[in-house]
Write a structure and sequence with these properties.
By secondary structure, this protein is α+β, with helices and mostly antiparallel strands. The chain is about 45% helix and about 15% strand. The strands form four sheets. It has a six-stranded antiparallel barrel. Strands 3-2-1-4-7 form a five-stranded antiparallel beta sheet.
Length: about 675
């Protein structure tokens, strides 16, 4: 069957579905609109299934189809439903939604060349809402999302704006490379979605952004970006290596986990004097007995005694910083949140901080704990380049989350706490435009790697791993002995791939690509997973989530219990009209709801919550009156839960098991031949 004949059949089915929901839901505009949007999703997925471009969201799909078939941009009104339909001065909501049904039918007819049935024509109206040509909202020039539709030259592009105007604009990106730290724009291709950060408009009417973010709905972990920037080499390919490199169970990993536990216990305790390093060490062993028992670095008495000695040094350093240096910076315990997670669909990043402090007048302090070594040689003030990158991205995350701005417009100070350093453990650092631009460039190249992996091409994937194996990326100016050690470690990681047979290599690449595709869909909602993805947190409105029974909002904090050293929070449910699919044991995210007019229907239509500050938890109990959750990380209740009056609970789609699966594939290649023959 030809592609066109298949689209024709899909169009016939869509016409029948439109007619059916018009007959059954005509008096319920919201249900009717959501039904039409579902039909639109299905149709564009089918149309784009044969295209060589992999689209990340409905915006990029519709823009591509609109440009290819010269269809009307008004179909984007349905894409933005239900956020926009209350912005038009129509006679009723029903009139507007019928108009959307008309636009959907015209769109399907234009693309499929299948005439709209007469029976459907009598149900829809070819009218334009009064306000269509006069958009309600002004464009937020600091937060502009576009889809690339044409590359005009090396630095000039045509793009479709994702806002109420649906205009095409010209983008000029030369200054990104000349002044703002970007090294390449090879990843900017037709069909890509870009976030333009703080764009200005030049004398030619072209938009010139400070930064660009490739596929912003694909959130990249802050740590993953930072690890691509090492003293010995800066390359986005380190991200690919981390996908296959096994995490060693070494004394350094154990000390890192111990140091984090010290911070949690000291800051969540009412009195530091009642806690000693051995008490925390025992609780850390009780939480990780197998990891400690199987750690080769702790296999004899002398090594174990040295580990206990080192643990005490980390404890003393952290305790001294908490008791003396934090108060001198104006950081009080009741202003601290421990390990809050943040996401930013503006910058396309996510991360979990160690310590965040925000006082009543808006002063924000970020502290990131590092149990490893300081820069070499150590001047007592410098920060390692990968730690710099991590801290700079936290500046962006926190500023966007708490103020909706960039770091330069807020009172934020960031510090790295080196718990291994006996002198000057707390070190301040601040970003500038060029440094942050270089980091965002690395982030964009990481997304390009992911898009190359999901292309399902053996040649492309093989080329990526060949580039990863190239040892010339290691800085030749570093100490020769150190460089030799790094290269030996790198060769050991790459050897199983290099020695694999053609059959084994095809097996490895095929499943590696499959896992990458699953991860991309889980993050962005690409294809049929649009409603069950991480991006649905901010792409779907509260009303849409309510209709899908996948949100619990307007929860009010009631009480806290400490059960086996875990914080258990009880919330009362203030809305009895909400049904959900939540069950005991579900892993969820908890975040404050900052919308004040939460009982208003219009507010719930427009509401895309400020989902930035996130706490991980799981459900212990749920009834129609209350819900009880257990937090993954301890929090100061006064600072965390009394600050906001209402909280929201959603399922956690931020699954990290994909990388573990890819590491397991690499371990399979490293296995004995007899084991590999079993597959």
């Amino acid at each position: 069957m030809s592609v066109h004949s298949n689209i024709t059949k899909i169009a016939e089915q869509c016409y029948l579905q439109i007619q059916e929901i018009l007959d059954t839901n005509r008096n319920e505009p919201t249900l009717l609109g959501l039904g039409l949007k579902s039909i639109l999703n299905h149709f564009v997925n089918e149309v784009c299934s044969g295209e060589p471009i992999r689209f990340s969201n409905l915006f990029s799909q519709l823009t591509f189809i609109q440009n290819k078939y010269s269809s009307s941009s008004r179909i984007h009104l349905l894409r933005r439903f239900p956020r926009r339909h209350n912005r038009f001065q129509t006679n009723s909501n029903e009139e507007y939604v019928i108009y959307l049904a008309d636009q959907l039918s015209i769109f399907i007819e234009k693309v499929s060349q299948k005439t709209i049935p007469t029976s459907l024509c009598v149900l829809i109206q070819h009218t334009i809402p009064n306000e269509y040509d006069h958009p309600f909202s002004k464009r937020n020039k600091g937060n502009l999302r576009v889809c690339i539709i044409e590359k005009k030259s090396t630095y000039e592009y045509m793009a479709h704006i994702d806002d109420d105007t649906d205009q095409h604009i010209q983008i000029q990106l030369e200054q990104l490379c000349s002044r703002n730290g970007f090294e390449t724009l090879d990843y900017v291709e037709v069909g890509n979605v870009l976030q333009l950060i703080n764009p200005s408009i030049n004398e030619n009417g072209q938009y010139c952004p400070q930064y660009i973010i490739l596929e912003p709905d694909y959130l990249v972990d802050v740590t993953a970006i930072a690890e691509c920037m090492q003293d010995y080499a800066v390359s986005p390919l380190w991200y690919l290596r981390k996908k296959i490199e096994a995490i060693p169970n070494s004394r350094y990993i154990r000390l890192g986990n111990y140091a984090n536990r010290v911070v949690d216990d000291l800051l969540s305790s009412n009195s530091d004097s009642s806690i000693d390093h051995l008490q925390i060490l025992r609780s850390d062993f009780a939480a990780n007995p197998i990891a400690y028992s199987t750690c080769f670095d702790l296999s004899d008495d002398s090594r174990l005694k040295q580990y206990v000695k080192d643990a005490k040094m980390h404890f003393d350093t952290i305790k001294s910083v908490i008791e003396k240096q934090l108060p001198s910076l104006g950081i009080q315990r009741n202003t601290i949140s421990l390990e809050p997670a943040f996401i930013s669909a503006r910058f396309g990043i996510q991360g979990r901080l160690d310590i965040l402090s925000q006082d009543e007048i808006g002063n924000i302090r970020i502290i990131e704990l590092k149990s490893g070594s300081t820069p070499f040689p150590d001047d007592k003030t410098s920060v390692k380049i990968n730690h710099q990158a991590q801290l700079y991205l936290y500046y962006q995350l926190v500023a966007d989350a708490l103020n909706g701005t960039s770091h330069s417009q807020t009172n934020i100070q960031g510090y790295i706490l080196y718990s291994k350093s006996r002198s000057s453990p707390l070190r301040f650092d601040a970003p500038n435009i060029q440094r942050v631009g270089r980091i965002f460039d690395i982030r964009n190249q990481i997304v390009r790697i992911e898009k190359q992996l999901i292309s399902d091409s053996f040649e492309i994937t093989n080329s990526l791993f060949e580039k990863l194996a190239d040892e010339r990326k290691f800085d030749p100016s570093i100490n020769p002995k150190f460089r030799s050690i790094l290269i030996d470690q790198h060769r050991k990681i790459m050897r199983p791939i290099k020695m694999a047979s053609p059959t084994e290599l095809h097996y490895f690449y095929s499943f590696f690509q499959f896992i990458a595709s699953e991860q991309f869909m889980a993050k962005t909602g690409m294809g049929d997973r649009r409603g069950r993805s991480q991006a649905s947190l901010w792409l779907k409105t509260t009303l849409e989530k309510e209709k899908a029974f996948e949100i619990l909002d307007q929860l009010v904090f009631k009480s806290l219990d400490l059960v086996f050293d875990k914080q258990v929070i009880c919330f009362s449910r203030t809305r009895s009209d909400i049904y959900t699919n939540f069950r005991v044991g579900d892993i969820c995210i908890l975040y404050p709801n900052r919308v004040l007019d939460i009982n208003s229907f219009e507010s719930r239509i427009d509401q895309k919550n400020s989902i930035h500050l996130i706490l991980k938890c799981h459900i212990q109990s749920i009834t129609d009156k209350k819900v009880i959750v257990q937090l993954r990380h301890k929090q100061d209740i006064d600072s965390s839960f009394t600050k906001y009056s209402h909280w929201t609970l959603e399922l956690d789609h931020m699954d990290h098991s994909y990388v573990a699966q890819q590491r397991n594939l690499h371990q399979f290649l490293s296995a004995d031949q007899a084991i590999k023959q079993l597959v």
